[in-house]
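Researcher: Please translate sequence to structure tokens.
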Amino acid sequence: MIRINLLPVPKARKAKKQMEVRHELILAGVLIGFVIVASVYFWYLLDSRIGRLQGEKARANVELTSLKEKVEEVENYENNKKVLEEKNRVIEQLKKNQGAPVRLLGEISRSVDPLKIWLSNITEQESRVDIDGKAITNSDIVEFINLLKNTKFFTDIQLIESRQAVELNVPIYNFKLRCTMVI
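Model: Translation complete:
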């Protein structure tokens, strides 16, 4: 028996094309679905990364604020330390200089013969000492200067002025000395 296909050929092609279009539409739907799922997945990854980075930024800002406070404390500590060191230096200098006037007066009093020399004024500015006084003779003034030189507490002793005057009908000499005190 012989069979004959009575279907027209164009209909078979049309059905085949429809099947191909359906497959292509299904494939396109699957691809679009995959792209949507992939996009949602990447959006979720990026969103979680953004959240994590924002959290790290917030923690870093808190730490930065804490570190700024610590730096400020350190700067305040250093400033206070400098002030304290300056105060200690001043106290040490005062302690060091505290004995200088006592030594000055002690050395001068050992060098003065009260029957020949009378001191009227002693001024000290830093290490320079000015002495004003009265003596019976010029040789008493020279003897006083020599005694001051022997103390090693005074250097560069200079007689600035020596004038003869009369007080209560007694001839005397007014003198001024300038010397440097060795501390």
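Researcher: Any highlights?
Model: The helical segments are 9-111, 138-150.
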